[in-house]
Amino acid sequence: MVQRTTSAARALASPSRLAILHALQRSGAPLGVDDLAAAAQVHVNTAREHLERLRVAGFVDRTVERRGTRGRPRILWLAVDRPAAATLDERFREHLLAAVLQGYGGEVGASTAAAERAGEAWAREHAERRRAPVPPAAHDVQASPPGPDAEDAAARRQLALLETHLEDLGLAPDLDADGRRVHLRDCPFLPLAQERTEMVCSVHLGVARGVLACEEGPVRAERLEPFVGPGHCVLHLSR
User: Fold this and answer.
1) What confidence tens digit (pLDDT) does each residue in 48-104 have?
2) This model's pTM is above 0.85
């Protein structure tokens, strides 16, 4: 299961493979390798290798051209619907890949903004299930005028929810003692992130903002700093 989702991220870590899959999805009809090589601006043999990698990852399939004339029929390629993901981790991987594909070829600013919104929408849908129940005593605090203790308690709930969610996604979060930075040291999407850094990081930033918004409190996600070290990114928070 992990192998399938990891291979999906690796399959789309190549700009040429992204271009091929984007062309197939945009076409809506099977295409030949010559057309796909032209779309990706690669040699036909290279396109065949990319198509095989996409086929193994479950993104495309082959079919034989139906023709009424003599001669060897062409092999055509088409995009296929992938099986529904079973776990939260798998569903997020599929969501992230869909966001990257949707933004492929567009303006960087507009694409990253759309990716961030996609991540935030995902988080608002799924993080709500992981919210920690508010202890009975907290109701009394909330009924009183807000103060430093109530604000700190709310911030702790926000950070706990964020840390739990990032752990669920396999990002190995490490929260600084001051609650201002979260180190992400084990990105499951590393090959894809290295090629499509702005898109992948925008989805993750949107997820963080959406998770924090699910729990009322003072903590906000400001920015995601990519690759401060090998496979190490930093999410910057503010109060």
Assistant:
1) 999 999 988 888 999 998 766 676 788 999 998 766 555 666 677 777 777 777 776
2) no
pLDDT digit string (tens) for 156-191?
Answer: 999 998 998 888 888 889 999 899 999 998 887 787
φ/ψ (deg, to 5) at 199: -70, -50
Report yes or no: 212 and 154 within 8 Å, Cβ to Cβ.
no
pLDDT the model gives residue 190: 83
Burial label, 158 (beta-carbon count in 10 A; 0-12, 13-18, 19+):
buried
Residue 97: how many other CB atoms lie within 10 Å: 24
**Strands laid side by side in the 75-79 sheet:** 31-32, 75-79, 60-64
Confirm if 114 and 103 have CB atoms less than 8 A apart. Answer: yes
